[in-house]
Design a protein that fits this description.
CATH class of the largest domain: Mainly Beta
Order of helices and strands: HHHHEEEEEEEEEEEEEEEEHEHEHEHEE
Largest sheet: 16 strands, mixed
Number of strands: 21
CATH topology of the largest domain: Jelly Rolls
Number of domains: 4
Number of helices: 8
CATH architecture of the largest domain: Sandwich
Strand content: 35-45%
Oligomer: single chain
């Protein structure tokens, strides 16, 4: 790799999947070499994720942001420090990378968004005193003046400050709304999952839906509701162990009779890995297991393999785990 200079623009092209074949191969070789600068690479990945996923991307001057970002990165004979200052996007959006997540605020709508990337968790205290624990690859958005109305994409646990005059609402991408006054509950609503679910630990909440069902559902402590997106039918049950619901907050991943496809989405969120299924039967197979988030993906696959007959291998060119 000594005779091949890696430019920040090359990394950007690779991350955004716009690189030509020569650049793609050069970056792949660099990633597997001793010269690989993980901090620099991850910083550019974060920048791309912000510009690619921001709900205000039509207002963002991406090229200006890239120019400023690359100008802030020191030359290769110095230590790369990633994003060194706040990135200003055309005076419309201010973004900054915070410990454990990304926060950005629109200067025109006062919309605040807090997001985590792969394997990250973040605790947020809202202006009303409510506390939110955000799981990996998740995002909440709310108006700065109305922190009790939350849009959730992913998974979060909420401890809601009591206010009888202002209900606290959480809406998922599938327009399922959880409404509470003062309570604690968990909501899991990743867009790629085949289901969404909510569990109430304390207090009382009301669950409604714009798309799936008409009647409102009242939840009491230990109630659990799961909605399978394919049919939209809510399934209500009672949990026996609260700790299972909050396993993700204690460094664990818990799968309860979950399809391999949904497990793959969870592993992607937590470990930043991609599983590609070549066997539809295995993809639909269900597992019950619990793993530490620190466990290597190879060990997880080996354990799952003991209960189902499948094989796997890593495609080093695409960095994908092939399940067959």
């Amino acid at each position: 790799m000594k005779d091949s200079i890696i430019k920040e623009e090359d990394i950007w092209a690779y991350v955004s999947k716009s690189a030509d074949e020569a650049t793609r191969l050069k970056i792949e070789d660099w990633k597997h070499s001793t010269d690989f600068d993980e901090d620099l690479y991850n910083s550019i990945v974060k920048l791309y994720e912000i510009t690619a996923e921001s709900p205000y991307d039509t207002m963002v001057d991406v090229e200006a942001a890239k120019t400023e970002f690359f100008a802030s990165v020191e030359s290769k004979d110095k230590k790369h420090v990633g994003i060194r200052r706040y990135l200003k996007y055309a005076s419309v959006i201010v973004l900054f990378v915070a410990i454990g997540g990304i926060v950005y605020q629109s200067l025109t709508t006062n919309m605040v968004t807090v997001a985590t990337t792969y394997g990250e968790e973040k605790q947020i205290t809202l202006a009303d005193g409510s506390v939110v624990w955000l799981n990996a690859a998740s995002k909440i958005s709310y108006e700065k003046e109305s922190p009790r109305t939350i849009q959730l994409d992913g998974e979060a646990f909420f401890e809601v400050a009591k206010d009888k005059t202002r209900p606290f609402t959480v809406e998922t991408p599938d327009h399922v709304i959880v409404r509470a006054l003062g309570t604690s509950f968990n909501v899991k609503a990743y867009p790629k999952n085949s289901y969404m679910e909510t569990t109430l630990l304390t207090g009382k909440v009301e669950v409604t839906s714009k798309d799936y069902f008409k009647d409102r559902i009242i939840m009491l402590p230990n109630d659990h509701i799961k909605i399978v997106k394919a049919n939209g039918k809510p399934i209500k049950s009672v949990i026996k162990n609260k700790q299972n619901v909050l396993a993700w907050r204690t460094g664990k991943m818990r799968f309860n009779n979950m399809s391999f496809k949904d497990i793959a989405n969870e592993l992607s969120n937590q470990l930043n890995v991609k599983l590609v299924f070549k066997n539809k039967k295995i993809e639909a197979s269900k597992f019950t297991a619990i793993f530490k988030k620190s466990m290597p993906i190879e060990d997880i696959l080996e354990i799952l393999k003991t209960s189902k007959n499948f094989n796997y291998n890593l495609n080093k060119q695409t960095n994908e785990w092939i399940i067959k």
